[in-house]
Amino acid sequence: MSATLLPPLPSHELRDSGSSKSSLNLDSTLEELSLHDCPIELSRPGREVVELFDRNPLLPGVILLDRGQFVGVVSRRCFLEHMSRPYGVELFSRRPISLL
Fold it and tell me: Roughly how many angstroms between the first and final C-alpha of the chain, as a whole number?
């Protein structure tokens, strides 16, 4: 049994998530993937993260900083799960992200 190679997809069917001029295709390298660099301080209110996700629908998460030092990341899914809990928006939109 031999493997059948499929023809490459047209480059217009695969697009990167950024505003890059190039399109991704089967011959693309990791270097061509879009990177997301979206840091936010833990002291900032949760509504700012909501605004970041609203403005950037393909943003997978945010980088959490404490006085400029990396402390972790939070994914879009995890953050929105917390915010969608009962009273989540009321509790966390005005409070610092660190309380999540």
Answer: 53
Instruction: Name 15's Cβ contacts closer than 8 Å, sequence gap at least 6.
Output: 23, 24
Buried b (16+ CB within 10 A) or exposed e, 8-41: eeeeeeeebeeeeeeebeeeeeeeeeeeeeeeee
User: Is CATH 1.10.390.10 the classification given to domain 35-99?
Assistant: no
Residue 40 to residue 52: CA distance in whole angstroms: 10
Give the residue extent of every domain in the chain: 35-99
pLDDT digits (tens, 9 = 90+) for 25-53: 888 777 776 777 889 999 999 999 999 99
- Are 41 and 67 within 8 A, CB to CB? yes
Burial class (CB in 10 A: 0-12, 13-18, 19+), 2: exposed
Beta bridge partners of 97: none
Q: How far apart are CA 30 and CA 55, in angstroms?
A: 25
